[in-house]
Specification:
Helix content: 25-40%
Structural class: alpha/beta
CATH topology of the largest domain: UDP-N-acetylmuramoyl-L-alanine:D-glutamate ligase
Strand order of the largest sheet: 2-3-1-4-5-6
Radius of gyration: 22 Å
Largest sheet: 6 strands, parallel
Number of strands: 17
CATH class of the largest domain: Alpha Beta
Length: 429
């Protein structure tokens, strides 16, 4: 039930949104949400009342998993969702206000905003994807985030927690909850979980499993998992899973999205089909024709995300453009560049002995680095330095469109961090 004050706040937000669109300053969802929140600080809770909601959080994969979850939930009925990725209070308010009659909600939520968002809307399901370093100058240290999430979940014992048991930190956040569904969603990046978040002692990895040497804390047995063709669930459930989006990481995202939808009452087979049909997430993964170049757009925001994005690069492409900014939403500290395995682009015209010394997670590059690499973006020079130390032959063209134009005609892979991705999208047809 929306109060009179709440209705007035939403009306004012609607006017602000209309004004933003009229003056060409954007869609106006954020300003509309900000105005409504300023006039009635309880509006988020009011909009969440009477719905069954899923909150999706984590360092990487939030937008994709939320889009998949929303698609799966639509097999049950109308769903309100912040599909464009505005994952803080104003964006959530705008999304819920836009679909006030929807019985269900699928909401992407920034990790640090989960506690008060969960307190406001009391979600039925909370999806925990992964935790790794991301914008340390804004978000802070990840063990602090894990402890914050753990405390928030403890206040909502009735919620079903869908947690990635391959991620040590998210497992720790969910470990004490009374109603957890464990999903083996993958954990390719392990650089931020070498020590136990509960004891500080070493985490030992043994194949797919892991355990702490300092306390009784280990990888739980998953109820959901996947392989290259199938999704497996409780009670012997086996379903073919074909996705429109590339990469193993998106199979893990889909597994958690389906588990969340099933926890909400969705039919598993219908949920898998719906999640598999998602083919674009706020411009990510789409291919755009720019002159003689077919450009596939990939987003990466931190070392774990870059590892995932680089694993999807087509090494037969005509070129790769890597665009990096260092604005506040990206994190102004770009030291993370040195954790990204750009060495994968190094020429493979080496001896078998030299190749054996390469990092095991490296993608086999084309011989003699046939794949042209172009550094671009506001912080393209920083990136170029990193590529130089990685031994990657590259050129530096700060403007991303000019960088694309410098590649040979044909298919081009473009990987950009957050603001670089947004800026380029605004310039594309």
């Amino acid at each position: 039930m929306i109060t009179a004050r709440g209705r007035a706040a939403l009306a004012a937000g609607s006017v602000a949104r209309w004004g933003s669109r009229l003056t060409g300053r954007g869609a106006g969802s954020m300003i509309g949400g900000l105005v409504a929140m300023t006039l009635d600080k309880s509006i988020l809770g009011q909009l969440g009342t009477g719905r069954r909601s899923v909150v999706v959080t984590g360092t990487n994969g939030k937008s994709t998993t939320t889009r998949m979850t929303a698609a799966a939930l639509r097999t049950l009925g109308p769903v309100a969702s912040n599909t464009e990725g505005s994952n803080m209070d104003a964006g959530l308010i705008a999304a819920l206000a836009a679909d006030r009659d929807a019985q269900y909600a699928a909401l992407e939520v920034d990790e640090m905003h989960v506690p008060h968002v969960a307190d406001a809307i009391s979600p039925s399901v909370i999806v925990l994807l992964n935790l790794s370093r991301d914008q340390l100058d804004r978000v802070g240290e990840i063990n602090h985030i894990e402890r914050t999430l753990r405390a928030a979940l403890a206040r909502h014992p009735a919620a079903t927690i869908i947690a990635n048991c391959d991620d040590v930190l998210m497992t720790s956040a969910a470990y004490d909850c009374p109603n957890v569904v464990w999903v083996a969603a993958g954990g390719g990046w392990a650089g931020d979980s070498v020590s136990c978040p509960r004891s500080g002692e070493v985490i030992v990895r043994d194949g797919a499993g892991w355990y702490s040497t300092g306390t009784d804390f280990k990888r739980p047995d998953p109820q959901w998992w996947f392989d290259d063709t199938q999704l497996y669930g409780p009670d012997g459930l086996t379903l073919p899973m074909t996705l429109s989006l590339p990469g193993t990481v998106n199979r893990g995202n889909a597994a958690q999205a389906v588990a969340a939808a099933v926890a909400m009452g969705a039919d598993p087979a219908r949920a898998v089909t719906a999640a598999g049909a998602v083919d674009e997430v706020a411009g990510r993964y789409r291919t755009v024709q720019i002159g003689p170049h077919a450009v596939r757009m990939l987003l990466a925001k931190n070392p774990a995300g870059w590892q995932e994005a680089l694993s999807m690069v087509d090494t037969t492409a005509a070129g790769v453009v890597i665009s990096v900014n260092g604005q506040v939403p990206d994190g102004e500290d770009l030291s993370w560049l040195w954790d990204v395995n750009f060495e994968q682009f190094v020429a493979a015209g080496s001896t078998s002995e030299e190749r054996a010394r390469k990092r095991p997670d490296a993608i086999e590059p084309a011989p003699s680095q046939r794949l042209p690499v172009v550094a671009s973006g506001e912080r393209g020079t920083d990136l170029a330095v990193r590529l130089g130390y990685a031994g990657v032959t590259h050129t530096l063209v700060h403007d991303p469109l000019a960088a694309i134009a410098s590649c040979p005609p044909g298919h081009v892979e473009l990987i950009a961090n957050y603001t670089a991705f947004l800026q380029l999208n605004r310039r594309l047809p």
